[in-house]
Structures
1.
Amino acid sequence: MIQQSEQRSARYRRGRYDQDETSGGISRGDVDDERSYRAAAELLDDPAHPLRAAAYRYPVSRDELRASREGFRSLAGGASVFAGGVADYAHSLLASWYALREHEELAGRLEEDRLADWFAASRLKGAVVTTSLQPVRPIHPSRTADPVAVYAEEGLVLSGAQTFEADALFADELLVLLHEEGGRTPVTIALVPADDPRIVVQTRPELTSFVNVVYEAVQIPWKRVLVDRSEKDVSALLGAPAASAYPAYRWLARQLEELELMAGTLFAVAEKGVLHKQLAAQGELAEAIQGLETVKALLEASELQAVRSASGALVPAPLPLQAAKRAFGPAYRLTLELLNRFSAAWQLDAPAAHAHGTEEDAALLRWVQSLTGSTQAALRSLHVQYAFGDSAEQGTAIYAGYPLEPLKERYRRFWRQHAAE
């Protein structure tokens, strides 16, 4: 196993980093890729790893649905490059499109034969797929008019740059969503082999953070294009209740775990002094608890109310998930704001004590900094901003999907009863 790990890690260094030294990225000496590789080595060195097979399955029972909360992000106790959950999100999208391809919301939305062929071959290989929450942009910022995709008879040619999480270094496939110039919604969906020689991955100082993927005229044949320039179809594949339920469920599970970690840290900081010195502190902490428990309850409700599709897939209930997405943003922002404020108050309250404090206190402060002011903290904010959409969009989705008629009928019965009296 060690020899395999060293061989594969060396292959990534030679094939994916060397060009970086001449393209403005971080050189190999600045990146501890061996450590990050070993954190996920149990998956990367084992083509038959159970998580690879599980990534291609859509749950058919509540036990399977609950188990799917883990995924690649659970590797090494959540300390690998897959901890961000983006690879799990990509696989959830693909599994949903495949399992529900005959669902009325998805039928005809993508090239089903192409998806079936790719899915069968990739599942057999156990290919690891990831995606990006960021659009593809022109390689040269000064040439924004340059198209990132040129469509030809054989397929499309992709030229541009895209920010990924560092799991892209170890992925086999990239799920790429392409926008029209100036558009907010993707119009094309393609699957790109990550080992294409015309792809360059530029690393950043922290391998557990971001990488810059550069597409240098990458040729993508039509058999790898699932949707060709249709904003309506892509919007349905990403946002229709049936298609988005499973990806949203797994993404929320990951975000809930992050929120629980932040809340635990917040309580530890509060107990250092703010809790007993500021009368409003307990009330604010109660609000943070309420937000956390609301998201947790709604995620549980999506499991309990899950509906079985005609194909046998157990689809999490969309409405509780939409409500959870809307509840998560305020809960996240409040917890982050309190964590910043309470930790600052703790440090200002007794600066001399901190200078001679315990190692436990120093470790707690370092951890707070990593949660609130680090690159990973910025990544969490991006997750909230790009994955859940803005508050107005979330509100529209909830209202559109809510069963209003039973409540309106209750109102009518009330007035009919009182009118009769």
2.
Amino acid sequence: MGLEVNEDDIQEMVEEHGQERTTDELMDLHHEQQQEVMEEISSAEEEEEKAEESLT
């Protein structure tokens, strides 16, 4: 049972690893952006509530 590894095998593995890492990084970035949007929405709602309270 001879297992042989050639340069193409190594290159393929390196490329796949790079793609996986990139995908993980993109998912992390997407999550961070979603968090920021939710925080902005919350802040805007709080400001709107304060403005309404000051009118009454």
3.
Amino acid sequence: MKARIGIVGAGRMGANMARHLNDEGYEVSVIYDVYQKVADDLAAELGAQRAADLPTVTANADVVLTVVTDDAAMRDIFKPAGDTLLCGAQGVTFINCATLSPEVHIEVANAAELAGANTLEAAMASSIDQARNGTLYLMVGGDDAVFAEHKQLLDTLSVALRYTGPIGSAAKVKALVNMVMNMNTAALAEGLGLGDALGLDLEMLCEVFSQTGANSRVLETDAEDMLGRDHECYFSAAHAAKDSGIANSLAKSAGVAVPLSEATKAQYEKLIALGRGELDKSAVSELTFKNRA
């Protein structure tokens, strides 16, 4: 029998994961979001209960997927008392999908264990379309027996799984994934911006990039958006700044200098300061093309 699924965080990623699981025959039984209308709309769409509080989620689900914004939001939903997922959590498994600091993933897992619950971290290296289609790339940390127990569910969400080790390990890997992705995005924006200033044909330049050492996955996903100034959000500049910050903090704790990552974070913080933090990360090109910023 398939597990009943609870969703905490019904934004673009959480909602599309819920839709895909519903399509695959899972009972998405309960949905919670800090924005009531968001939860109401998704619950109505999927025939689920909209939870007014977090204990209602744990009372009505066997597995709870959490997709929240940052460390503070994660600590809030797992606080020791009051409106918390830890209330009545005995026997529940939490699969925490947000990009957070490793320390918070470990902190939450320890609190859940004391409450009698299991925890996995499932870091996602994909975007909205992949969430909807069940083709996420997931990096999963946690107890290997808990991972094995829930592998069928995780396979349903993903095109590939990578077990990374204990809780906290997937967060470290994800931080480095996004650190490099963000640097690649900022570097591509600079290259295209300079090419434009030099009067080059940018379509030609992108084709040359694709056949040389300048190629990257970001070239495939972001170059057209940078040229067309189409920054519909799939992964926001604000999230890019947050995730680069996580990586930079890990580097500092390890005693490693990461000047390129620090410069990249500063670029995304400029976008935030300009009121453009909710645009896609490709909007970093607005800072690198003449007469755009």
4.
Amino acid sequence: MKENVIVLLVAIAGIISEVSCKLQLVPESVDLIPDRCAVIVVSYLETEFYNGTITLKPEYPEIASVNPSTIDIENASQKSWVVQVCGIEAGYTVIYVNFHQITYYLHAIVGKFYVLNAVADFVGWIYFVAWSISFYPQIYENYVRKSVVGLNFDFLALNIVGFVLYSVFNCGLYYIPYLQKEYLNRHPKSLSPVQFNDVFFSVHASLASVITIIQCTMYERGEQKVSLITKMITMVFYLIVLITGVSAYINKLHWLDFLYYCSYIKLSTTLIKYIPQAVMNYERKSTIGWSIGNVMLDLIGGLFSIFQMFIMGFNYNDWENILGDPTKFGLGVFSISFDLFFMYQHYILYRKFRTDLIDKPVVFDEKAEINRSSIPKSQ
């Protein structure tokens, strides 16, 4: 019995010793260009030293180098050390920092030109702003017309579901340390996939969608309503959220997986949400009520988003950023295709119809769902 207790105490002491040997890397990620270096500070966080050696090893030494590659801390009088990371050629590599059987990860991103980093950031802000304000032309048009006739309710229903769940995903990974830790455990070489601008965009998009839906309860809407098939689709989405949420609550599913299911639903809504509006425009032979400003801003955002992906692919010699993530790239192209189709409907297919309405205002019956009050004064 006494021997078992001793073994247990030794094991606990080993675990405590292993956990207590903590390092901190500042910063945890560096942007470089070939033949340029950055400084990383490696700090030992505990009050007492654990004798040993810190080793630093790049996964791809042809992309970046480290100096020194080893740090001997035995009987050291300091707790922080400066490490130089130098770029060699364009690409991305993880630098493994090992100490006392614990591995930390330093990310080195080597671009061809610093200026392309600035260009990529600028392009990123363009599409962020374009997408963020793309909701307001529709809101403004609804307000001016005091009507939502021509705005498809199926599109709105799918849009709000997608953006709310996208907000859940972003807020969860950005604000909850427990989920951040689990993500890093599963993807130790990766950086956080969610930044503050992602959180802002998704929450803002959800609020803008809510405002548009409120307008639908206030203004003239004719006989428009959410179709049965969309109700069934959204019900399936709600059931998935409910089942996965309950499973996570009773510890049958990790909460991170719950967030993943939320993101999958968001991707699904993006694939199908534009279809009802395109069909409605075709049946009405008109785009009146569907803001072309919304479409053009969404198109600008999509084009600049893909443009940024190509800039980063070239600068970092990382075309897997595009080819390795066909879902993200495919969804971008898919949305752009619908934006172009909406512009084709607005400016070519139904242009004569809109011109006739301007020259000779006509009162239509309820089946056409267009009346004098639904014609914007600007058209």
